[in-house]
Amino acid sequence: MTASAQNRNPIVDASKGLAILLVVLGHAVQAHTQDFDRSLLFRFICSFHMALFFFLSGWVFNPNSHARIKKTILRLLPPVASWYMLSYILGGFYKIESLPNYLARFLARPDAGLWFLWVLAFGLLAMMAGRLLELRIGRVAYLFLIVLFFIAPIRYLGVPLLRYYFPCIVTGYLLRNAVVDMKRFLPYVLPISLVVFVAVFPFWHRTYEQVTAPAQVIIEGHQLSIRPFVYIGAKYAEACSGSALAVWTAFLLYNYLRMTLLQWLGRRSLEIYVSHQLFIYAFPARSAIAIAGAFCFALAMSLIVIQVIGRIPGARELLYGVPWMSCEMRAPNPGNVEEQCTQLALPANLRGAYWNK
Fold first, then answer.
1. What's the pLDDT at 232?
2. Separation in Å, CA 111 to CA 105, 160, 161
3. Whole-number pLDDT of residue 80
4. Which residues, in sequence order, are bridge partners of residue 219?
5. What are the start-end ranges of the H helices in the chain?
6. DSSP string spanning 76-115?
7. Rounded distance, CA 6 to CA 231, Å?
8. 301, 254, 316, 231: which is closest to 28 by C-alpha?
9. Which whole-number Å values give the CA distances from 198 to 47, 237, 278, in the listed order?
10. DSSP-assigned letter for residue 65
């Protein structure tokens, strides 16, 4: 085993691998179910899978390396631009609208494209700003930024998505710094997370319009709308408890069942995330068989495409941002790979990440 392989954290990689499998499966359910919001499987996956990616991004965030953070951000954006332009050409959108209008529509709602990479890039920028504020006013700086995102009346550039997921990045970052002091509580994380997830799941909904809580209650003669509190509370309760359960599951599968496949997939999660959407609609039917077929087909074809693109000079950098083996191959000092090659984004190759022990 190489020094770089030894320096990688297998639990982080396994967590990424489990998360990317859930992403592909969730999209398969969404593509091949008539009313996917009523699907218990879709609701289960959607309640925490992307929050898990952002949580892990915060976990490996290194605030003392601004140069690396900047480099990571710049590596996240090329796949967004490249694939969005390819969809403009291959999808035939050039026949019905001009390129400026197409790009303006993306900037207005980047959730129509590879939104995760876009939002993560801006999330890391916000974390850099938070670190500068932290040096002056302490960790309350991150709470200040969270509140700022929630009250900012901006509906463009992915800010609504960042408004929801930025607290997940902050949570991962703060938990990593506090995990040593919290070791005595770790045995209780699994049962508490399980109870919270099961209890809150009936109240979780993907969109605000689906919330079934009463619109208003009367408190001391005043009308108070509780629906927003139910919506936001259920969102974050499921995101936190589901992410904790997923990490524990990855830990158990890797440590006790030796499922190294999850670790292997985790190292390629960025590429799978970008590629699988090309194949997820391969089956026209809407059934459980179509869901299973689309999941297997999209995953297999993504891995094939990754291998093909990896053999084309420059294509990996353009379409995937960072070739998944570049860090290990380019490190001049293999014994110091963690210091030189730590990647701070997820799913863009969490290299050299460590759990605090």
1. 86
2. 10, 10, 8
3. 85
4. 222
5. 3-7, 10-31, 40-46, 49-59, 66-90, 99-108, 115-137, 140-151, 159-178, 186-200, 227-255, 260-266, 269-275, 288-310, 315-320, 326-330, 337-341
6. HHHHHHHHHHHHHHHTTGGGTS-HHHHHHHHHH-GGGSSH
7. 42
8. 301
9. 12, 10, 33
10. -
| 10-residue mean pLDDT series, the chain (357 residues) | 54 92 95 90 94 91 75 79 84 84 84 83 90 90 92 86 93 83 74 94 78 52 64 90 93 83 90 90 85 94 92 84 44 35 34 33
Q: How many CB atoms lie within 10 A of CB 187?
A: 8
Q: Give me the count of residues in the chain.
A: 357
Q: Domain boundaries in the chain?
A: 3-341
**Spatial separation of the C-alpha atoms in residues 44 and 27, rounded to whole Å:** 13
Look-up of token digits 């190292």:
267
pTM, two decimals, is: 0.82
The β-bridge partners of 222 are 219
Cα–Cα distance between 83 and 90 in angstroms, integer?
A: 10
Token code pair at residue 292: 């299973």
pLDDT at 1: 40
Under 8 Å between Cβ of 281 and 18? no
Q: Which residues contact 201 (CB under 8 A, 6 or more apart)?
A: 43, 44, 47, 238
227-255 and 159-178 are packed helices; what angle lies between their axes, rounded to 10 degrees? 50
**Backbone phi, then psi, for 56, in 5-degree steps?**
-65, -30
Ordered DSSP codes for 11-22: HHHHHHHHHHHH
**For residues 99 and 102, what is the distance between their CA atoms, to the nearest angstrom?**
5
Nearest to 176 by CA among 2, 323, 346, 336: 346
d(CA 246, CA 11): 11
